[in-house]
């Protein structure tokens, strides 16, 4: 409903009510506030006590007022719902747009160093991986060797695991197992298992390497 339509309905209701009840609306300013005073002027004879024809006309006018009032309320509610839907749509579009414009934090690129995992000759270490001295263990014999080494890291475990899953196969290592917190590889007579853990808020990467000479 347009503003002109609402004004027309309001004017029609006011006119019909004024014709029956002699109602007038006066707007005054009291203490800086706009106040609407409704005043009634009594007729010499009430329409209730008027002849049947006058009473019938009055009742017809009342029906008309009720009809106009109902239409006004219906259209007003309809317009309100349309306005609410429009505001909701605008809000959702704005939120979606702001969400799309937000830049996700960039993940740090993995940098391969020239160092290798303790006991190996070609398993690369990543920048940010620091060897833990008391976390290493080695055993050598004529039949083979077993080496365990631990490294602390601030890198994302999943990214580190993906790096080794992509890099080691290029060096002849086959993937034997890939789980959430570990990965196992094999190359000829060599076995390598990488475990990912976190202790006391410190991220750990553990390498278990074993090889057979015969």
Characterise this structure.
With 214 residues, this protein is of the alpha+beta class. The protein has two domains: 3-101, no CATH class; 112-212, TATA-Binding Protein, CATH 3.30.310. Helix content is 37%, strand content 34%. The chain has three helices and eleven strands. It has helices at 3-21, 52-101, 157-167; strands at residues 23-30, 33-40, 112-116, 124-126, 130-131, 137-140, 144-153, 174-178, 182-187, 190-199, 202-212. Strands 5, 6, 7, 8, 9, 10 and 11 form a seven-stranded antiparallel beta sheet that branches. Strands 1-2 form a two-stranded antiparallel sheet. It has a two-stranded antiparallel ribbon with strand order 3-4. Strand 10 and strand 11 (202-212) form a beta hairpin. Helix 1 (3-21) runs antiparallel to helix 2. The longest helix has 50 residues, at 52-101. It is rod-shaped. The protein starts with a helix and ends with a strand. The model is unreliable at 38-50 (pLDDT under 50).
Count of separate structural domains: 2
Please name the CATH architecture of the largest domain: 2-Layer Sandwich
Q: What is the assembly state of the chains in this entry?
A: single chain
Proportion of residues in β-strands:
25-35%
Question: Spans with pLDDT under 50 lasting ≥5 residues?
Answer: 38-50
CATH class of the largest domain: Alpha Beta
Q: Given the C-alpha coordinates, what overall shape results?
A: rod-shaped
Number of helices: 3
Report the C-alpha radius of gyration, rounded: 43 Å
Number of strands: 11
What order do the helices and strands follow?
Answer: HEEHEEEEEHEEEE
Could you tell me how far the N terminus lies from the C terminus, measured between alpha carbons in angstroms? Answer: 92 Å
Structural class, judged by helices and strands? alpha+beta
On the 0 to 100 scale, the average pLDDT is: 74
């Amino acid at each position: 409903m347009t503003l002109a339509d609402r004004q027309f309905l309001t004017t029609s209701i006011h006119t019909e009510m004024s014709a029956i009840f002699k109602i007038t609306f006066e707007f005054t300013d009291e203490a800086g506030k706009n106040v609407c005073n409704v005043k009634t002027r009594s007729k010499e004879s009430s329409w209730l006590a008027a002849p049947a024809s006058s009473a019938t006309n009055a009742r017809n006018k009342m029906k008309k007022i009720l009809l106009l009032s109902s239409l006004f309320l219906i259209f007003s509610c309809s317009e309100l719902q349309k306005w609410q839907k429009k505001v909701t749509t605008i809000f959702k579009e704005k939120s979606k747009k702001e969400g799309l414009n937000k830049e996700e934090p960039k993940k740090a690129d993995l940098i391969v160093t020239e160092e290798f995992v303790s006991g190996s000759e070609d398993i690369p270490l990543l920048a940010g991986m620091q060897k833990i001295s008391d976390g290493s263990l080695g055993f050598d014999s004529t039949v083979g060797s077993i080496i365990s080494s631990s490294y602390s890291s601030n890198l994302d475990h999943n990214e580190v695991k993906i790096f080794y899953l992509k890099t080691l196969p290029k060096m002849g290592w086959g993937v034997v197992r890939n789980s959430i917190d570990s990965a196992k590889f094999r190359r000829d007579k060599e076995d390598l298992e990488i475990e990912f853990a976190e202790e006391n808020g410190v991220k750990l990467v553990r390498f278990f390497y074993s090889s057979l000479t015969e």
